[in-house]
Design a protein that fits this description.
189 residues; Arp2/3 complex 21 kDa subunit ARPC3; 6 helices; 2% strand; globular; BioY
Length: 189
C-alpha cells in the first residue's frame, strides 16, 4: 500500500514539473516578437510552444497548462508578446488567437489520437490543423471585427500568418518527434 501511494505522488510531481516546464517555455517565448502594426497582432513563438504543450501533455494536462497561461495573462501579467497582458486583450485583434490557444489542445490531441505519432507527417498534420489552421481561423474573426471589415477580409489578414505558422508547426513536429524518441516527455494522456 505504501509503495502505491509513493508512486501516485511521484506521478503527480512529474506531471506538475512537465506542466511548469511547458508553461515557462510559453512565457519565455513571448519575449521573442516581431510587431506587425498594420494588423495589430505580432508574430510570436508562443503559438509554437502552445502546440508543443498540447502534444507533450495531452488533452487534459495540455489544456490546463494553456488555461493557466491565459488566466495569468487575463490577470494582467505581461506574458504575451511585447509585454502585454490583461483581460482587455480578449477584446482586441489578438482575442481570437488567444481563444484559439485555449481550444487547440483538444484539436491537436484528437488528431493525434486518430492518426497516432508513429510518423513525422502525422504529427505535422496534427500541429498544422490544430495549431496553424485553427488558431489563425479563430484569429480571423477578431481581426475582421476590430478592423470593421468582412470575415473574408479577416481570413485574408490571418492568412498573412500562415507561412510563418506553418514553419513553426514543422519545427514543433521535429522537436516533438525527437524528444518523444528519447522519452524526454512521457505519455500523459
Amino acid at each position: 500500500m505504501e509503495n502505491r501511494v509513493k508512486t501516485y505522488k511521484t506521478f503527480d510531481a512529474k506531471i506538475l514539473a512537465k506542466m511548469a516546464l511547458m508553461l515557462s517555455l510559453i512565457i519565455v517565448s513571448g519575449m521573442i516578437t516581431i510587431p506587425i502594426p498594420a494588423l495589430g497582432v505580432p508574430i510570436v513563438l508562443q503559438n509554437m510552444f502552445i502546440m508543443l504543450t498540447a502534444g507533450f501533455l495531452g488533452k487534459k494536462y495540455g489544456f490546463w497548462t494553456i488555461a493557466m497561461f491565459l488566466c495569468l495573462v487575463s490577470m494582467g501579467l505581461p506574458l504575451l508578446a511585447g509585454g502585454r497582458g490583461g483581460i482587455v486583450l480578449l477584446f482586441s485583434p489578438s482575442g481570437g488567437f488567444l481563444i484559439g490557444y485555449f481550444f487547440c489542445s483538444f484539436i491537436i490531441c484528437s488528431i493525434v489520437e486518430k492518426l497516432g505519432v508513429k510518423s513525422y507527417w502525422r504529427i505535422l498534420i496534427a500541429y498544422f490543423i490544430g495549431g496553424t489552421i485553427f488558431i489563425n481561423f479563430m484569429g480571423s474573426v477578431t481581426l475582421a471585427y476590430y478592423s470593421h471589415s468582412s470575415w473574408w477580409s479577416g481570413l485574408k489578414m490571418a492568412a498573412f500568418f500562415l507561412p510563418i505558422d506553418t514553419a513553426k508547426a514543422i519545427v514543433a513536429a521535429i522537436i516533438y518527434q525527437r524528444l518523444k524518441r528519447y522519452s524526454f516527455m512521457g505519455e500523459n494522456r
